[in-house]
Structure formats: structure tokens, C-alpha cells
Amino acid sequence: MLLTLLILAIGACNQKNANTTTSKDFDGDETAGAKVKTGVKPAPDSQVAVIETADYGRIVIELYPNVAPQMVERFKKLINEHFYDGIAFHRVDPELGIIQGGDPQTKGANVSLYGTGNSPYPNVPAEFSDIPYDRATVGAARTSDVNTANCQFFITLKRQPAFDQKYTVFGRVIDGLKNAEIIMGAPTEQGTERPSDKVVIKSVTLQPRANFPAQ
Length: 215
Hints:
Elements: H1 2-10, H2 15-20, E1 36-37, E2 47-53, E3 58-63, H3 69-80, E4 88-93, E5 98-103, E6 128-129, E7 137-140, E8 153-156, E9 169-175, H4 177-184, E10 199-208
Parallel strand pairs: 1-6
Antiparallel strand pairs: 2-3, 2-10, 3-9, 4-5, 4-10, 5-8, 7-8, 7-9
């Protein structure tokens, strides 16, 4: 039961699907036919995504276009359009070890919609790989349909084997992981995983990878 509920907790970018589907994912029913790219060593993009939060400092994400080219392209496109500026990290889960953000609905006051929003663009198909969800991994959120990644993303702050080969890995945090951990521990509204005080992303920019030393 716990594993079945995990995908629902991750949330997704497609509002219709997020509100109407139930998950069979961790029973293997919906990911069994998905292709998995194996044996590929992540090759960093020439640019990194630099997330500047209003209260928690900076998080720098290395991107892997050789692993998930379509998701990286979408992420960079949205960054260039300033799509993520003003959006919040709407979900924190210390037990699971994740933080999640990227939903444009979080710019509004209707918290019931948080986790259901997407970008104006079509969903991105699954780009699964055998890269494990270790600490600092960045993945694409989705519904129980494997091909519904779009704009939302999550960062794992501890090993999460239940996500392996079930969510698209497209990057890794190379700086600011402690800031992400502090966000994960932020106080939440009672009975929810929503931070009591909005964790606002001031901006996300693309900067040269060379500006950040190898970790």
C-alpha cells in the first residue's frame, strides 16, 4: 500500500490526470513496458540550472542531456522563459527524503491546486534510465501515466530505490544540497506536506557549468 501511494504523493504536472488517476506504477503494471536506457554515464551539459530561493539560498543543478534529452530541453526552455520565477517548492517530505517544485499553480493562493499545474507545452515522454535515485538526484514528476512529465521536478535528499527506473532522471544537485535539506525540514501545514511559509523560487537561470567546480 505504501509503495502504491508514493506516486500519488509525488504529484504531477498534468492537472486532469493528477485529479483523476490512481497509480499502479509501483506494482509494475504501468512501467513494465517503458524503455530503460542502460549503461549510460551521465555527461554534464555545458550549462547548469541555478535556483535562487527567497529565503534558503542557492541550489545548482547539473543537467544530463545524454540521459534525458527531451526533459533537459524542456527544463532549459522553461528557464529561458522565466517560467519558474516566483514558483514555490510546494512539497517537502523528510521521511521520503524529497522536495518538489515547479508548479505554476503555486503562484496563486489556492493551495488545493498545488501540485496539479503544468506548462503550456505538451507532456514529455518517459526517458527512464538505470541511474539510481541517490542523494542529490533530480527527477521529473509525473502522474501514473509514465509519459506525463512536463514542468515539475523533485530532488531526492536520500537514497530512494523505489523511484529507480520509474521516474526520469535528468540532473543532479552539485551545490546547495544543504539548502535543499533545510527546505525539506521546513515546518508544514498540519496534515500536509506543504510548507507553512511558502518556499519561493526567486529565479532560475542557466549559467556555464565551468563556473562551478566539480564535486
